[in-house]
Design a protein that fits this description.
The chain is of the alpha+beta class. The protein is about 30% helix and about 25% strand. The chain has 2 domains: about 270 residues, Roll (Pnp Oxidase, Chain A); about 130 residues, UbiD C-terminal domain-like. The structure holds manganese (II) ion. Manganese (II) ion binds next to strand 8.
């Protein structure tokens, strides 16, 4: 199970467009990816003096479902099972990624410069895997990596699990060995975006999602494991002594994240398939929102399911950056259910800022229906929950810049049970066979 095998499926389904014109890694590829964010995947075959580049691979929810071979209903339970019962993948001696092993020359890799004011080229689909100094804990996560020169990257380390491993290495006075796998199956990207407790390897989650098919290889020059079927692997060491200015860089919100002092990664070796395809991922694009957002939707779904018997759907909306805004539909039993659902949602996804709970007749993916529910089923004096000064996303530019604190808002847009149901009924017009026929005929005339 590799990126390649998935691209073959996309090719068959005519969801892969081949771009034969010559394009540059600076702004050109990213602007084309931007124009087709939730469209087909794009294979750039003619990249100025570089290998091929593929983009927008997981640009739609449907493609994630396709990649995991699950239905929309099965997605969250599947993710939950994988997080709760990960399976350690097999380690093999040889894998396609070992076809070429060579010293690093990062300028040979078609790393994109995405936005106007980005600090430079950034690797955005790198799956970073590392182990604790005692080898007991492995962590796998995705980090933005700024290319500094032919042998060095800057890595953004948010204080989560990889940061913790890096701190452990720092205490021993030793750099942290990492493998950076690029060009992997969507399940590996999705697993790396999950947040299981520290100590659970996200490779185990990916392997479970892939029904036991994930294979790892031991790196040649560092103490870490990489994806055997990746297109490209960078072997490196996150320095515990060297830091540089990293950024500015566009993150999931589509705004520039500020420049910070961040650790340097010394790349010591590179391995890749002979004809490797470099995987690009547009920051703030549909694919970024889906990969980061889906595991959080599953977390919200689980948290809300604990307090409300029947949760129908969760959507981290595109306009809320796939991260800050959730719409949750429930089958309400009592009037307190929606507020409990709101509190659970904020607990399930700590970066969540605004949440709307609707009844199960509302389609959470349809913003017009959601607004309709807010217009007709919500009273601000009793259905609004405001939680001031809590911890939220560091990416929200309106949060307090010094403390990082933000206010959260929950909207209960479910119909109050004390008002007769009929009051909220959406009126329907009965259709006859004759009217249906005429409607179809007019439609045909209009669109032919
Ligand atoms: Mn982790």
């Amino acid at each position: 199970m590799s990126l390649r095998s998935f691209l073959e499926i996309l090719e068959e389904k005519k969801q892969l467009v081949h771009v034969k014109e010559e394009v540059s890694t600076k702004h050109e590829i990213s602007s084309i990816m931007d124009a087709f964010q939730d469209g087909p995947a794009l294979l750039f075959e003619n990249v100025k003096s570089h290998s091929k580049v593929v983009g927008n691979v997981c640009g739609t929810r449907e493609r994630i479902l396709q990649a995991l071979s699950v239905s929309a209903e099965q997605l969250y339970p599947n993710l939950r099972d994988a997080v709760l019962s990960p399976e350690t993948p097999k380690v093999v001696d040889e894998g396609p990624v070992k076809e070429v092993v060579e010293p690093p020359r990062l300028s040979k890799i078609p790393v994109l410069t995405h936005f106007e004011k980005d600090a430079g080229p950034y690797i955005t689909s790198g799956v970073v895997s590392a182990q604790s100094p005692d080898g007991k804990v492995e962590n796998v996560s995705i980090h933005r990596l700024q290319v500094l020169n032919d042998k060095q990257l800057a890595i953004r380390l948010v204080p989560r699990h990889l940061y913790r491993l890096w701190t452990m290495a720092k205490e021993k006075g030793k750099d942290l060995d990492v493998a950076i796998s690029i060009g992997v199956h969507p399940a590996v990207l999705l697993a790396a975006a999950c947040s299981p407790p520290f100590g659970v390897s996200e490779f185990g989650i990916a392997n479970r999602l892939l029904c036991g098919c994930l294979r790892l290889v031991r790196c040649e020059k560092v103490d870490a494991y990489a994806v055997a079927e990746a297109e490209l692997v960078l072997e490196g060491k996150i320095s515990v002594a060297k830091e540089v200015d990293e950024g500015p860089f566009v993150d999931i919100t589509g705004t520039y994240d500020v420049q910070r002092s961040q650790p340097v990664v010394d790349v010591v070796s590179v391995m890749h398939r002979k004809d490797y395809v470099y995987q690009a991922l547009l920051p703030g694009g549909s694919e970024h929102r889906i990969l980061m957002g889906l595991p959080r939707e599953a977390a919200i779904y689980d948290a809300v399911s604990n307090v409300v018997p029947n949760v129908k759907a969760v959507n981290l909306t595109p306009s809320g950056c796939g991260w800050l805004h959730a719409v949750i539909s429930i089958e309400k039993q009592t009037d307190g259910d929606a507020k409990n659902a709101l509190l659970a949602a904020f607990a399930g996804h700590p970066s969540l800022k605004h949440a709307v709970v609707v009844d199960s007749d509302i389609d959470v993916y349809n913003p017009e229906q959601v607004e309709w529910a807010v217009a007709l089923r919500f009273q601000a004096d009793e259905d609004l929950v405001v939680i001031p000064k809590t911890r939220g996303s560091t990416l929200d530019p309106s949060a307090d810049q010094e403390s990082g604190l933000t206010s959260k808002m929950g909207i209960d847009a479910t119909r109050p049970l004390r008002v007769p149901k009929e009051k909220f009924e959406k009126a329907k017009i009965p259709k006859t066979g004759a009217s249906e026929k005429i409607i179809t005929k007019i439609r045909r005339e209009l669109f032919e």
